[in-house]
Write a structure and sequence with these properties.
The chain is of the alpha/beta class. It has 11 helices and 14 strands.
Length: 300
């Protein structure tokens, strides 16, 4: 049985491969070609745990993932996980994969894909809120896949170090919001960090945090301004994300559409736009499957 650690995943999965994997995942999910029960979620001692299975005709995946907030003080990524890939035909385990890095790659790839669909490939200024593992991979995959003139980054701490690492400018939050055309919000904040009063008129925001009903990354003003609200799974955000549940109750959300429908039906997106993702197992499934198949090519 194959083991793919984070270093190996980076070697074999290009940004193009990773974005193509999540693109296919969202399309298959929208078409009903992925069997994916709602993930099981546990909150224990303030930490979030998720168990995420999914089945396609060519791959079966189970991921166990968590968000351990105290890991920031331990020098560890707050998101940890493991992915098991199995054959749908024989049931045999094919690979065990580093779920921490795979999650970061597939999540960043989804944000990049939403940007391409809504804004295009040429981004004047990209702003990244956060300085953790997700922020790093968002910058990495975006830089490899899109044409970006400038990257800004802000966070409560560590963003200056990350800015140097990725060749970005470290700025305060208000400056980032005012100057960015596209914003990736990659925080564990429970209060909004994307504030509509500071944003440009023609923005695209991708938010990967606020994956519980009581948490927010995006304020009501931003949501009210958005002409298109894109989601990875309407079922998932309706039960998990405060960035959808709370403004939806207030009637602030307009034109909700799953990203898989945009891809499958080639729908043009009207901006300003928001992409809200809580992550679905289909993304892990296809990214793991792509990585496994590419590893077979690399080993020859």
């Amino acid at each position: 049985m194959l083991y793919l650690d984070g270093k190996k995943l980076e070697e074999i999965l290009s940004a193009k491969d990773a974005v193509n994997a999540v693109k296919e995942a969202f399309s298959l999910y929208y078409q009903g070609k992925v069997t994916q029960p709602q993930r099981q979620v546990l909150t224990i001692k303030g930490n979030w745990w998720g168990i995420m299975p999914s089945y396609t005709d060519f791959s079966v995946v189970v991921k166990i993932v968590n968000v351990i907030n105290e890991n920031k003080n331990r020098g560890l990524p707050s998101v940890q996980g493991i992915v098991i890939l199995m054959s749908p035909d024989t049931g045999e385990p094919l690979a065990v994969i580093d779920g921490t890095i795979l999650t970061a790659i597939r999540t960043a790839s989804a944000s990049v894909l939403s940007t391409e669909l809504s804004y295009g490939n040429r981004i004047p200024t990209l702003g990244i809120i956060g300085a953790g593992l997700e922020a790093y991979y968002h910058a990495k995959i975006a830089s490899e896949y899109l044409s970006i003139s400038r990257i800004l980054i802000t966070a409560r701490k560590s963003h200056i170090e990350l800015a140097k690492k990725i060749g970005a400018d470290a700025v305060d939050l208000q400056t980032l919001l005012k100057e960015s055309d596209v914003i990736f919000s990659t925080t564990s904040s429970k209060e909004p960090v994307v504030l509509g009063k500071f944003l440009k008129e023609d923005f695209h925001v991708s938010s990967i945090g606020a994956h519980t009903p009581g948490a927010r990354e995006i304020d009501d003003e931003t949501i009210a301004k958005a002409k298109t609200y894109i989601v990875d799974s309407l079922q998932a955000v309706s039960s998990e994300s405060g960035d959808y549940i709370q403004p939806q109750k207030k009637g602030l959300i307009k034109n909700v559409i799953e990203i898989g429908k945009i891809i499958t039906e080639n729908i043009k997106i009207e901006r300003p736009s928001i992409f809200k993702t809580v992550g679905i197992s289909a993304q892990d499934n296809l990214t793991a499957y792509y990585a496994y198949k590419l590893s077979q090519t690399f080993s020859k």
